[in-house]
Design a protein that fits this description.
Layout: H1 5-28, E1 36-37, H2 39-49, E2 55-59, E3 65-66, H3 67-83, E4 88-94, E5 99-104, H4 112-120, H5 132-143, E6 149-152, E7 156-160
Parallel strand pairs: 2-4
Antiparallel strand pairs: 1-3, 4-5, 5-7, 6-7
Length: about 160
């Protein structure tokens, strides 16, 4: 008896759910100053979460990074994913001092208020559960001891912190 398609589908779903849980643990979990995330771990999690997705994510960082900063990057990845409902490419880099998330794709205009507030470090006034990561970016930016700069247009997003 060979592998049944139903079992393969169930296995794929379980694997995707496991990667999503790992992503959420980094993005929403506790992060102390002495914790680090290796580039291998970040790439593995992102590859699993975005396997077959419309958004292609490239973690172009080669050294281990403080978990507080990776947490902020993962929350921002969710914001970029929301802004690019039709897909696109996202590249995350670090030059030794600053992080840069740079994305290309057709963006959604309805999130302008969320983006403007987030980039100014303001908590959104009206927030649905599906957009909570926008509010958490403000706190994660502060916890990581960073300041954020954003540029958001019809087909390009750039966030530096």
């Amino acid at each position: 008896m060979g592998t049944q398609p139903e079992l393969a589908l169930i296995n794929d779903s379980i694997e995707a759910a496991n990667f999503r849980v790992q992503f959420y643990r980094v993005a929403y979990g506790l992060a102390s100053e002495d914790q680090h995330v290796t580039p291998t771990e970040a790439r593995r999690i992102l590859a699993g979460v975005y396997k077959g997705a419309r958004l292609r994510v490239e973690w172009a960082i080669t050294e281990g990074m403080p978990r507080q900063q990776v947490k902020l990057a993962f929350l921002l990845i969710q914001c970029v994913e929301d802004a690019l409902p039709y897909g696109g490419t996202l590249r995350i880099t670090h030059n030794g001092m600053y992080w840069r998330l740079e994305a290309d794709g057709r963006t959604r205009n309805q999130d302008q208020e969320l983006w403007q507030g987030m980039c100014k470090g303001e908590e959104p006034e009206e927030l649905t559960p599906s957009k909570v990561h926008y509010a958490l970016v403000t706190y994660a930016t502060e916890d990581a001891g960073r300041r954020m700069f954003c540029h958001h247009s019809d087909d390009h997003i750039e966030v530096t912190f």
